[in-house]
Amino acid sequence: MPADALYGVHTVRAAENFGLSGDRLSDRPALIAALGQVKRAAARANGDLEVVEGRAASAIAAAATELVGGQFHDQFPVTIVQGGGGTSANMNVNEVLANRANAILGEPLGQYRPVHPIAHVNRSQSTNDVVPTALGIAVFVTTRQTCAGLDRVKGELLKQAELYEGVERLGRTCLRDAVPVSITALHRAQAHAVARAARDLERTAERLLAVPLGGTAVGTGLGAPDGFRELAIGYLRDGTHLPIRPAEDMFAALASLESFAAVADEMARSGRVLARIAADLRLLASGPVGGIGEVCLSPLQVGSSIMPGKFNPVLPELVMQVGFQLSGAAHVTHLAAGAGELDLAVMGPVVAAELLAGLEKLGTVAALFADLCISGLSWDLERVEANLRGSLGPAVEYVAVNGYEDGSGG
Length: 410
Prior knowledge:
mainly alpha; Fumarase C, Chain B, domain 1; Fumarase C, Chain A, domain 2; 2 domains
């Protein structure tokens, strides 16, 4: 163990035992910050209840505030996916905060005096309630950032709708010529779908703010003094500026991951909505000679290593592939939620890995889609007009007056 490490032996053992490739706690600052917020709230409640000596409680809270502010995130080498329901993640933060609190008090690293990672930093808590509480906060905060990216897509689509106000294009059903539809109606419909998906995603994530902190081991509250739950959740609400509230049923909150699975479903749905829009733009831009060719996408990069002058719809294809990945992440979350046997849902770590990475990816790809694709697209109005000649609109109007049999020649 490095001499200047703030973590301790439990963290070292976990890093060795769970030595997978992939995201580590240090790669997910939102989760580390949320863990710090939980520990700060708990320290303040423990200090008020005098189950942790005031000087030690203040030092823990100060160290946790530093963690929330972004310091010491490099001290979290444990992979997010781990056995034990997140115990190693909880112990990693306990050890870091204990060592940092002792340093604040002028004591050396590694001796855990006067602040101990379990006796003081983890007082009145369990991994059982700390990890789902922190994960709920981290997912909600990340979801808000994701929805900001989705809002950018909506905004750029509405700009396109306004730009082409009054212009009709050939509508298509089953990839066959149908009736005229305005470009404005197409883009407004796309913007509506994105806005609805973003709204539902954020509303579903908001349910995660009903937290089980204070439930300790499997929801019993064992080991926490009377009043801890109310005090800690109050401090957590004040510290995060979020509408955090106690879970309606502590036992259910610790035994089930279904609330996280619901967020995963909405995440995957948002990815599908973007992918569908991307696929439509890709199809409308097909050609330019042998395809529909109505939409012109910005030529972002050379599209072929052998065919000169070829530009591919790389951003729509990226969006579509991310949509596939998000569906996979949702499936992993479903499996994890279904494996929560008996009194504790221990598969939370893989849910943390899939949800946090998926939400970040969704927000990033949405911003890229908005800025590098939708904002720069244009419609080839000559091609639009030429294709509009294939409209069945006049035929529909004719049969409305003269009957379907007469209009179809049958």
